[in-house]
Amino acid sequence: MNTNQQKTSGLGTFGGVYTPSILTILGVIMYLRFGWVVGNVGLFGTFIIVTLSNLITFLTALSVCAIATDRVVRAGGAYYMISRSLGIETGGAVGIPLYFAQALSVALYTLGFAESVVQIFPSLEAYEVYIALAVTIGVGILALTSAQIAIKAQYFIMAAIALSLISFFLGHPVEQTHVELWRTTDVSFWQVFAVFFPAVTGIMAGVNMSGDLKDPTKALPIGTLAAVGTGYVIYMVIPLFLGLRADAQTLVDEPFIMARMSFWGGAIALGVWGATLSSAIGSILGAPRVLQALARDGILPNQLNFLGQGNGRNDEPRVGTAVTLGVAIAAVCLGDLNLIAPVLTMFFLTTYLVLNASAGIESFLQSPSFRPTFKVNWFLSFLGAVGCLAVMFLINAIATIVAGIIVSGIFIYLQRQELKVTWGDSRRGMWMAFLRTGIYQLDQLTDPKNWRPHIIVFSASPHKSWSLIELADSFNHKGLLTVASIVPERREYESKKNLESTIKDYLSKNNVQALVKIIRSNQNYAVIPQVVETYGIGALIPNTVLLGNSNASFNQDWESHKQYCQTIAQLHQLKRNIIILKENSDRQSRTFGEHKFGNYQRIDIWWSGIQANGSFMLLLAYLLKNDWQWRKANIFVKLVIKNPHASETTQSNLSNLIEKLNIDVIPQVIVSEETSFEKILHQYSDKADLIFLGLAEPQEDFDQYYYQWQQKTKNLPSVVFMMAANDFPFEEVLQKD
C-alpha cells in the first residue's frame, strides 16, 4: 500500500475552500427553482425550508471542522476523513460511489449548461450534446493544466454570479403583488423541501481539495463555515425580493423569473452559466483526488494502482483527471442522466451522513487520540447524521435504498479483501466502549434463560487437534470460544507471540472465530485449572472446558493418568462444565477416512434424567444440531431401565417430556434385564457418529472410575464425556414454563 506523504500546494482558505464551496452552493436551483419554492410554500414556508436545509449542512460542516482540526487531512477529502475514522472498509464503501457521483456530476452540470444555452438560443437545440461535450472537454483541459488555474477560473465565475445577484437586487417588480407568508398547493411541503435541499450540499467541493491546501487544518473549518454562512444569508434574502416582485403563480410557472426581475436580464444567464461551470470544475477537481487516494490506499485492484500517481510539485492527479474526463464524456454521450441523478444525490448525502457519524463516534468515545481544536458535541454530529438520513428518504426513498445496497455491497467486498492499513481508526474504541458497558452489565446474577457457552479448549496445535476445535466451534452458539495451547517455558516471548499469530491465521482460514491464549509452562495438566481460574474479566469467564482424552492409561503411565483425573476434579471444584472428547481414531479412519465424526448423521445421548448432566447433554446436542455440518443429524435419547413392565410407561413419559422441551430428538427406552450397560452401549451405539455420556462427580477413586469408562468405550465411535457444573440449573434453560 502506498503511503507516500503528499505535498501540499499553496491553495489557501479563500481559493481552495471558500470559493469552490460557495460557487457550488449558489447553483442552478437558486436561479431556476427558487421562485418555484416561494410560490408553492410562501415566504414563511421558504424560510423554514432554507433554515432546516442549512441546519443539516451546518451540522455536517461542524463535523468536518472537528475531524479536520484533529488530524492532517490529505488528498481524498471526505474519503480520507471517513477511512481514518471508521476504517478503510467504510471509507472505501463511501469513497468509490462518491468518486463516480462526482465524475458523473461533471456530465450533469455540463448538460445543464448546454440546456440553458439552448433555452436562450433555441436555434442551437440540435447541437445541445455537442455543446455539452465541448464544455466537458474544456473544464477537463482546465483541470489537467493545473488546479491553480482552475481555481483562478472560478474567481471569474464568482464575479459573474456576484454580478447576477447585484443585478437581481437592483431589479424591479414584474407585477403588483402582496407577500404570502404561507401557501398551500398540490405540491407538499416536503416535496418542495426535497427540490431545494440539493442547493445547500456544496461543502464537499472545498473538502475534496484538502490535498491541495497549504494548511487544511485551518482552511477547511474557516472556509467551509464561511461558505455555509454566506449561502444561508443569500438564501434568506432572495425570497423577500421574489415575494415582493411577482405573484405566487407567476413564480411557480416561470423558471427564468429572476431574469425578468433583474436590472439586466443577461446577468442572470451569466450567473446560470457560471453556476453550472463552477460546479463542473469543482467536480472535475474533486473526483480525481478521491480516485488518487483510493488507489494509494490499495482499495482499487492492483491493476489500477497507476491511478494513484501524482504529477508536478503539487502532486496533481493528472492520470485520474484524464480517467474522470473519460467517464464524464461517456456520460454526456448518453445524453439523459435523469434516471441515475437521484442515486448520485444519495451518494453525496450518504457521505454527509457518514462524516457526521464519524465525528459523533469519535467525540462520544472520548478517545485520547481524538483531540480536535474545533470541538463539537457528539449529539450535534449524530443529529446531523439523522437529518441526512431523513432527507434522503424525503427526496427519494427508492434511490436511498439503492444507494444503501450499493454502499453495503462495496463494504462487504472490501471487508472480505482483508485490507491491511498503517493507521488506526475508531472501531477499536467503539468495541472497547461496548465491551466496557457489556462487562459491567453482565457482572450481575446469572440468568439461566440467557446462558451461552463460553468455551476454552486446550489443544496442542490446531492442525493436530482439529477435531477438538471443530467440536468446540460446533457447540459455540453465539457464545465465546478460546483456543488455548500450552508450550514449554523455554520458549521465548517473541516465539510465543509468533505462535499466537500463526494459530489465529490458521483458525481464520478455516472460518473459526476464536480468541487465542498461549501459556508458557513446563507443567501439562496441572496448569490447566490455574489458567481456567484466572482467565477472563468480570463475569466474562469460561464456563465450559473442552479437553482431549488422556491416553496415558493405555501407555501404562498411571501417574500421568492420575494427574489428568485430578485436573478434571479441580475443574469441577471451580464449577466449570467439563467436556472430554475421546476420539477412537483408528476405528474412524478405517470406516470414514478423514471424517473424524463419521457422517455427521447420528448423535446418541445416554440419559439418566433431566437433572444436571442430562439437561447439559440435551442442550449441547441441540447446539450441535444448529451447526451446518450436523444440521441433518438425528438425536437419539437413550434411557436404560431394568423392569420390562415399565417400558411403555417410561417411553410415554420420556416422549411427553421431550415434547415439552421443544427439541427435535428421538426418545428410545431400552430394557436391560440382566445385560450389562457396556454391552448395551456397544449394541445400540455402534453405528452412531457421536456418543454423549455423563460422568459422575469426582470422588477419591475417580481415576479408577474414569479408567473403567476408557475400557468400556473401546472400539466405539467418538465419545463425548460430559460433567455439568453442579451449581447451574441447566434444566431451566431447557424448560419452557
TrEMBL record:
Localization, UniProt: Membrane
GO MF annotation terms: chloride:monoatomic cation symporter activity
Pfam families: AA_permease, SLC12
Principal location: membrane
Keywords: Membrane, Transmembrane, Transmembrane helix
Domain called Amino acid permease/ SLC12A: residue spans: 17-426
Stored InterPro entries: AA-permease/SLC12A_dom (IPR004841), SLC12_C (IPR018491), SLC12A_fam (IPR004842)
SLC12A transporter C-terminal domain boundaries: 467-584
Transmembrane segments: 12-32, 44-69, 90-109, 129-148, 155-174, 189-207, 219-242, 262-287, 319-337, 343-361, 382-414
Top-level taxon in the UniProt lineage: Bacteria
Topology relative to the membrane: Multi-pass membrane protein
GO cellular component: membrane
Name under which the protein is recorded: Transporter, cation-chloride cotransporter (CCC) family
